[in-house]
Design a protein that fits this description.
The protein contains eleven helices and 17 strands. It is an alpha/beta fold and about 375 residues long.
Length: about 375
């Protein structure tokens, strides 16, 4: 089969790999019909994620058709069209039983923190991802769900991570009626977080970024106010000024480890790798909210120390809430929002790229070229 293959930072190829096989009675093999490149994939592409091994196939957002199933699988059969959450979960461990599907203790040897994730290095279990013609799906009775007949494929693939994560970010913000919500980052997760904030009762939503085309999308897609941080000497002072000098009630960090805005932090976190990425957006969130506010962290950070203003967070009495999104737990409500037209994830899609051109797709997305917001990958498997 053809698959995206990692050959080192900034070096990926489309190569031939063996078709995955059933390794456990609970496995399924899915023929991928549509995948996506996520902003988190860029952390791997840029060499920021520990233990990303040469030969790995990325991709944790994908849908497809069941090709074969193991003898223990009961909920799926060959021919089913399925969407697969980016989390790999056993469904029965201590954490899965409590709804913490992103923290499953049985699917990752490094599960003292995160559980298993498709195509996201050996730090998250070493599973190959869906930027390929076929993918092995463990615990097939737990994760995958048959795509409803009414759902558009592009909505379905974006529900496997970006849309669910953005919605989860707004949920963790514990937004109350009339709250002022600031979203850092106008990528797909930030756009959905901003849109979801309205659904949860926000009275005002402000999106912060420095790319004009993404801020334009935030105004159009999420009907949010926008702030270009590059136009202000101190974006925190500006945010305080436009929020009655108190600060926002809720901030949602949808940027993570590669945040721009502070040259030294960016160099230390992304070039020298002295910390788990650049904490600029998170520190702005801590500074820009009022005392007693809530900060939701959806941005991905590496598993080493960061220069986060934790003392300021403590002294302001802030509540920080964060986790990888338990995708399948969000789906029942998200399905209703999509079906009723309250959310249209596919409106974020800007590029549809054949698998054989995936290296160019990563370059376009990484370099923010051609107005790229969300690129999809089309494997075209026979």
């Amino acid at each position: 089969m053809r698959a995206m293959v990692y050959r080192g930072p900034y070096r990926i190829r489309t190569e031939e790999k063996d078709v995955p096989r059933i390794e456990h009675p609970n496995d399924a093999i899915v023929r991928v019909t549509l995948a996506a490149i996520c902003g988190s994939d860029l952390h791997l592409y840029h060499g920021l994620m520990p233990d990303t091994r040469v030969g790995t196939t990325f991709g944790h957002e994908f849908i497809g058709v069941v090709d074969s199933v193991g003898p223990s699988v009961q909920s799926l059969k060959p021919g089913d069209r399925v969407m697969v959450p980016f989390n790999i979960s056993c469904g029965s461990c201590f954490y899965c039983a409590r709804g913490m599907l992103a923290n499953c203790h049985n699917v990752n040897p490094n599960a003292t923190a995160v559980g298993g994730i498709y195509g996201y290095s050996h730090t998250t279990g070493g599973y190959d991802g869906g930027q390929a013609e076929y993918v092995r799906v463990p615990f097939a009775d737990v994760g995958p769900t048959v795509i409803p007949d009414w759902m558009h494929d592009e909505d379905a693939v974006l529900l496997t991570d970006a849309t669910a994560t953005g919605y989860f970010g707004a949920q963790l913000g514990d937004i109350r009626q009339g709250d002022v919500v600031v979203v850092f980052g106008a990528g797909p997760v930030g756009l959905v977080a901003a849109q979801s904030a309205w659904l949860m009762g926000a009275g005002r939503v402000i999106v912060v970024d420095h790319l004009d085309y993404r801020l334009e999308k935030a105004r159009d897609f999420a009907h949010a106010e926008t702030v270009n941080f590059a136009e202000h000497d101190d974006v925190v002072v500006h945010l305080k000024r436009i929020t009655d000098h108190l600060g926002a009630d809720v901030a949602i960090d949808c940027v993570g480890a590669e945040a721009d805005g502070n040259f030294m932090q960016q160099v230390a976190g992304t070039k020298l790798k002295l910390q788990g990425g650049s904490p600029v957006a998170l520190n702005w969130a801590i500074d820009a909210v009022r005392k007693g506010a809530t900060i939701s962290v959806m941005g991905a950070y590496g598993p080493v120390p960061s220069a986060v203003k934790f003392g300021d967070a403590m002294n302001k009495g802030l509540t920080l809430r964060m986790n990888q999104c338990p995708v399948k737990r969000q789906w029942p409500r998200l399905f209703e929002h999509v079906r009723n037209g309250h959310l249209r994830p596919r409106d974020m899609v800007t590029h549809r790229i054949p698998l054989e051109h995936i290296a160019e797709g990563y370059h376009i997305f990484s370099s923010k070229l051609d107005g790229c917001i969300k690129p999809l990958i089309v494997p075209s498997a026979a």
